[in-house]
Amino acid sequence: MKSNRNPYGLWALAWPIFIEVLLQTLLGTVDTVMVSRISDDAVAVVGLSGQLFAALTTLFMTISGGAGILIAQKLGAKRGDDARTIAIMGLTVCGGIGLTIGLLLLTQAKALANLLNVSAELLPLWDVYVSYFGGGMMLTALIAALSTAIRNTGNTRAPMYIGIAMNVIHIAMNYVLIFGMFGFPEWGLFGVTVSGNVSRLVAVLLLFYVFIQAFDRRIGFKDLFTFKPRLFKEIVHIGWPLGVNMSGWVFSQLAIYTFIAMLGAAELATKTYMSTLESFCFMLGYAISLAIQIQVAHLFGAGKTREAYVGAYRALAIGIGLAMINALLLLLMGRHLLGLFSQNEAILALGTSLLALNLLLQPGKVLNMSLNNALNAVGDTRYTMMTALCSMSIVATGGSYWLGIHAGWGLAGIYCCMIADEWVRGLLVLRRWKGQKYLRRAEAASRPLESRAIAAETGMSV
């Protein structure tokens, strides 16, 4: 008997995403602790290279993000074949982009280090991590495309289980290969790259198995060569502003990390540790905001614009409340938690001083994140792109250099600018969502269709 459970209910979508993010964050914290046992320099390399990887992944996240929104919209509009085709094209295009990025990182690690002003003492570790872990970027691209497509069909549980399995494999192999346990060689940071590539490969295989059965018609090998220009144009239309927005954020973060690197290795390691701790503050807010994007896109495709409008505010209120509770807990326990990563007193003192600022950062971040996702779900991606680019370039990046470097405020000055950026963008998208531009447009477009349907039923002309 077919289940009557609504796969697009907010809680049904959000809780598996939350569990996935929670366990990924916990395992990511364990991963950071393991890397810190190699050295603080190794942590600095992983943190800085992570920003580089994030910058490059925007190239395929543009496609997977646009495809994901359209999949939910098409399924809401009862156009399952179009949703299936969009998912297939998203997978193949993302895979090709990921392969290209992987080859770039494998062959040009040293050139990228010079571009990012990586200090001489970090170069040997940088070369190992960027070349070998970054060289497997195609796996990350396939994971992004597959998991996004599956989630937007309403199945958020499968990516959760597979994400958990991937991270458990990664941590277990880290333990063995970093420290040379059970007779294996002691590979240090190179061991992290091996475990990362193996765990990602396992995730791709499991996600692909779920993906081929995610739609009404099973996806076969020949279907992977499907390409429909009309639908791909829709993906690009809704996806390119998402990509530019994401690229702007990542490059802004990359520039900020470069400024922090100018302050010194201790500041860079502190920011990496703080980013790990901060992720606990907004992970439930993030899960809810991602769930609301899927839900709003589905409701919008189905023509239920009023439900979509109210649902975004409900998600926002829940997300902000939970992020604030987590931020308060982090403030109380922060120094002890930082001590899990490092015993360097300079790092502990600096990190502790930033925890109070985190109380201001988190609500602005959730406000920005939730309503950005809601606007993206209805196709208003250009507005979110323009507001993000202006605020990130002027407030976040420009302000961080001015306060953090020029004015000598250091890492605290950079944090102040990050807070200001989140609030500026959050208030702008709040104003836009209240205006309901795309929702009203969809309502207006649906009225002639409703009139024709009524006329067809009654035999009257319109």
TrEMBL record:
Compartments (UniProt record): Cell membrane
Membrane-protein topology: Multi-pass membrane protein
Keywords assigned: Cell membrane, Membrane, Transmembrane, Transmembrane helix, Transport
Stretches that traverse the bilayer: 12-30, 50-73, 85-109, 129-149, 161-182, 188-212, 238-260, 280-300, 312-334, 346-362, 383-403
InterPro entries, per the entry: MATE_fam, MdtK-like, YsiQ
Database matches in Pfam families: MatE
GO MF: antiporter activity; xenobiotic transmembrane transporter activity
One Gene Ontology cellular component: plasma membrane
Name of protein: Putative MATE family efflux protein
